[in-house]
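Database export, one record per block. Field names are fixed; values are copied verbatim from the stored entry.
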Amino acid sequence: MVTPVGIGRDHSWEGFCAGRSGIAAVCAYDASQDPVRIAAEIPDFDAVFAEKVRLPFRQRYARFTRLALLAGQEALDDAGLDLDKEDVTRIGIVMGVGAGPLHYMGPVEEAMRGGCAGIDKIIDHHFVVKTMFNAPASMLSIRHGLEGPSTTVCAACASGAHAVALAMAWLDGGQVDVVIAGATDSTVTKHTLLAYHRAGALSSANEMGASASRPFDRDRSGFIMGEGAAALVLESGQHARRRGAESYARLLGCGLVSEAYQLAAPRKDGDYMARTMRLALADAGIAADAIAYVNAHAPSTPLGDAAEARAIKAVFRDKVCKIPVTAPKSMMGHPIGASSAIQIALTAMSIRHGIVTPTINLDHQDSEIELDVIPSQALEMPVPYAICNAFGFGGHNACVVLGR
């Protein structure tokens, strides 16, 4: 995990468990006169990347690609996968990207208005590489010599969950033994924040700083733009046993649904979100009563949080008040395509360690949200089965079921 809460698995996990917020005043550029002046950025990323990845000419590659390279490197190291002993033709890569190189488009437009001299400064011989959506997957393949299938999934905020679902299909179909699956995004730029603000998605509660992201709270006013990446090493049980791998969790099932409604708003009743969760449970062969924990999409938007709460209640019915629900975006903001990959990683950690991360900034839970949202402090509890939700712009719904 490479997140605003921490760089690396251990640092991120410790930060989420401690309820540490990664939201602060924008550092990437001068936002002092902008309507949105806060975001969730990754401090010291460039220095850590230079130390751990050691990529020559790293500035040739866009930040979202470098985030993925660091996450992928850490995932491979953590998995103890000895690539010299593996059949690299049976190791695949699926990376999710939500907004990708969107942040390059604003400067290009400005340069075009300034004439050819301005364009030459922006569009150099590295521009194509920087703006390729598939660059993260491609660079992971090139850097580690992985020769199995490799692709990129773009499903807005659900890109990471869709990547994991596709990886699971490859594994179940016997096409590969191992897949590096995850997602990456970095969109904290002046043009991007202004665009999302004008779309009505971002909170402009700048004075609230670290407490501006408030999932399920009555005073939530929109999400906080973030950045990040997560990569997971997924492999068949047979392959994991053969190499003596130490696993975090089992990937049991996935549900994917299109709401076929609006580009930037979910259906208010939450029916299609509920359908997504039911499909994932059916795919996993797990009854709703077996689920012990829900890692919610919960972006801190008035419509999104309420719809998801209705969906969770519809799926779990009378048990809904007994199932802990948490919202990691209260701490990491919303790293768009990377969000669900990070949350799936966190869910796997919760299953392994028996700890559910908290939801911070929940001062007054919305009276219409009838869920057992875990506030302030992490909760120690056994987690035999859990679900992780991801509901993206455009109606890209995904749910992943994990188990011990």
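Remark 1: The domain at 2-403 is CATH 3.40.47.10 (Peroxisomal Thiolase; Chain A, domain 1).
Remark 2: The chain is about 35% helix and 20% strand.
End of record.
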